[in-house]
Amino acid sequence: MLLEVRDLHVEFHTRDGVAKAVNGVSYGVDAGETLAVLGESGSGKSVTAQAVMGILDIPPGRITGGEVVFQGRDLLRLKEDERRRVRGAGMAMIFQDALSSLNPVLSVGDQLGEMFTVHRGMSRKDARAKAVELMDRVRIPAARERVKQYPHQFSGGMRQRIMIAMALALEPALIIADEPTTALDVTVQAQVMELLAELQREYRMGLILITHDLGVVADVADRIAVMYAGRIVESAPVHDIYKAPAHPYTRGLLESIPRLDQKGQELYAIKGLPPNLMSIPPGCAFHPRCPLARDVCRTDEPPLYEVSPTRGSACHFWRECMDD
Ligand code: SF4
Ligand code: MG
Question: Cross-referenced Pfam families, in alphabetical order (predicted)?
Fold first, then answer.
């Protein structure tokens, strides 16, 4: 495994109490593999990724347990400077909002070039040539001219391509993309996602794709991990999930995807809201919203049951859910 997160716990200490954001998450991704991490906002999917990347400092998050094993070493047990070096060389992140991640007063070429002057000790001229090459790679037309332009002169989709180019610059083994297409139009979303998937294959990187939208990952993910209230509630190869979800929450997410053949029909939406992380419901955290819930769900927390050797579900009634 390129990356293995094991039994990770993260808390946020606030004035009102302790928010349990991540409660025992385990997942892994291999070189050349794409893992989609799915869930509503507040499910812990971003916080888990931030713990992997080492950017949990704001707001005051604290890793209270677990391991983040990257290329065979537990990052959480390395010294700070060593940890930073390993992460800097091996992983990169792409965020939803390119405009606030890019520097508005530096040309795109200077920002891309900086990756090579600072981290690879290249001359400005060589770095500029690399910047053009990268812009070609992410298929920005007229790269040689546009390399001189500033972030605001690009469309949202083109800016997101620049973010992808920045992430690729040092050829990381792992890229984490947090809602990389959420701010874009649907057609542009598909193009950017397709590009990301293509580059991932070409570079044989591990890719973790964080999203709330099951619709955008169907064609690109190998595996899906569904998160709820800081836990993984279902983990499976992508095709298994689409064929028959083994958790009522996954089923709810699937049925919320708009389908062309169901125009006019009302979309199934999961009723209610995700729980407050300062007071997660006892038993199965999903029980207040679950159409299959019964007494045992309110008292006994479901473990991740083995549905198949490659698939797990944290639902006492996963069989029933699949047969439904
Ligand atoms: Fe629903 Fe119970 Fe399964 Fe939780 S354990 S998802 S409440 S049926
Ligand atoms: Mg998020």
Answer: ABC_tran, oligo_HPY
Q: Whose CA is nearest to atom 5 of ligand 1?
A: 315
SS3 (DSSP) at 239: helix
Pocket of ligand 1 contains residue 159 by CB under 6 Å: no
Q: Is the CB of 318 under 6 A from ligand 1?
A: no
Closest ligand, as measured to the CA of 182: 2
Nearest residue (by CA) to ligand 1, atom 6, is 315
75-81-87 Cα angle (round to 5): 50
Give the C-alpha separation, 67 to 123, whole Å: 39
Nearest to 19 by CA among 77, 64, 66, 67: 64
Strands 91-94, 206-211: pairing kind: unpaired
**Closest CA relative to residue 245, chosen from 317, 298, 300:** 317
What pLDDT does residue 111 have? Answer: 95
Closest ligand, as measured to the CA of 301 = 1
Q: What is the ipTM of this complex?
A: 0.96
pLDDT level of residue 256 (50, 70, 90 thresholds): confident
Q: Where are the domains of the chain?
A: 236-324
Instruction: Indicate whether residue 29 lines ligand 1 (CB < 6 A).
Output: no
The answer to whether 199 and 168 have CB atoms below 8 angstroms apart is: yes
What are the two backbone dihedrals, phi and then psi, of residue 101, each rounded to the nearest 5 degrees?
A: -90, -25
From the list 321, 262, 261, the residue with the least C-alpha distance to 286 is 321
Average of per-residue pLDDT across 57-64: 79
With helix as H, strand as E and coil as C, how does 94-156 read?
ECCCHHHHCCCCCCHHHHHHHHHHHHHCCCHHHHHHHHHHHHHHCCCCCHHHHCCCCHHHCCH
Under the banding of pLDDT at 50, 70 and 90, the label for residue 259 is: low
Q: What's the whole-model pTM score?
A: 0.93
Question: Can you tell me the mean pLDDT for 115-137?
Answer: 95
**Best probe residue, ligand 1, of 280, 286, 289 (max atoms within 8 Å of C-beta):** 286
